[in-house]
Amino acid sequence: MDGISIIESAPAGAISAWLAARLAAAGGGALTIPGGSTPFPILEALIAAGSVDWRAFDVWPNDDRLVAEDHEASNTGRIRKLLAPLGARIVALDEALTPPHFALTWLGMGADGHIASLFPNTDPRADDPRRIIRITPDPLPAHAPFDRITLTIPALVDSDAIVFTLGGAADKRAVLEAARRGENDLPIARLLVAARARGLPVTVFA
Question: Is the pLDDT reported for residue 1 higher than 70?
Fold first, then answer.
């Protein structure tokens, strides 16, 4: 067994209910959440349900674009706008910080196998001594052509559990399944190997 559970075609409400249960069981602590288009409707459903005491949580973005927080491309800015009014402590990534152990690592994934801002060209390592790094994707994504700051694989797997939300994308599902079988060496594959080595449960909402 590789510790990976795949849940098919779950709507945002079902995913938010799963997240609420997980966070309630944790009772507080730190979690890291993704940016991009897929997670925010789920996060909004989770907020609307009102079942999480956000005052108990420190929330770290997985990664961010190196832009001002009031820029529309800022993950930190969007997260802060949603969760700070509810009492969550939002932590902007900075290389001088040391990430904590996370109660939950929530990740998205690109069709190229990138996680957070660990793109294939950045050659992310499971044994990287750094926990937060600045990188430049190559090629720069057309929708967000910015340098990035990101948690590394060791920071992401320093967690009680990992959950992926893929948004129903068949191409992403295929990449993840290939990584699971050891058929590629993309960032997602390296993270799954590191998670397996730590015995972490991984849940995928495909």
Answer: no
Reduce the DSSP state of residue 41 to 3 states and report it.
helix
Task: Say how far apart CA 148 and CA 116 lie, in whole Å.
Answer: 10
Average pLDDT over residues 66-77: 96
How big is the chain by its Cα radius of gyration, in Å? 16
Query: In angstroms, rounded to a whole number, what is the distance separating the alpha carbons of residues 124 and 191?
Result: 9
- Dist. CA 201–CA 205, nearest whole Å: 13
H-run or E-run covering 54? none
Q: What's the half-sphere exposure (Cβ side, CA atoms, 13 Å) at 200?
A: 27
Structure tokens at 137: 């994707």
Give the Cα separation of 6 and 164 in Å (integer): 9
CA distance 37 to 160: 25
Residue of 85, 83, 65 whose CA lies nearest to 75: 65
In single-letter form, the type of residue at position 96 comes to A
Asked if the bond preceding 41 is cis, omega within 30° of 0, the reply is: no
- What is this structure's pTM? 0.95
